[in-house]
Amino acid sequence: MPEVPAWPEARQDFQNVRCSPPGRLPNASRPCQNFPNVMSTYATDVRLDCLGLFCPMPILKTRDAMKAMLVGQTLEMVSDDPASEADMRAWATGAGQVLLEIAKDGAVYRFVVRKTR
Fold first, then answer.
1. pTM score, two decimals?
2. Which of the residues are catalytic?
3. Which of 5, 12, 79, 99 is deepest in the core (most CB within 10 A)?
């Protein structure tokens, strides 16, 4: 049996994309929406499109969407705001939510967040 290269060597074709390693959720791999070349390991319950919005709107819309969700549900947010990665990391930490995945395809970021409270 051929040896499977370890992460991230197995994903050399996506050098500019950061995604979570495979295997987080069994049988949940699927193409990311808006990211046809990236496989997501997370199925999401809610999708939020923040393309064209800039700080602080992606964070505010994410916060409002999370309020309407149940604990344990996941949200996928896409944004083309250059500051969105740093903003989402800070917001998730401060709000006590779990940022499961960050991916970037060109100028578009994709975030997957799990509601924990």
1. 0.66
2. 55
3. 79
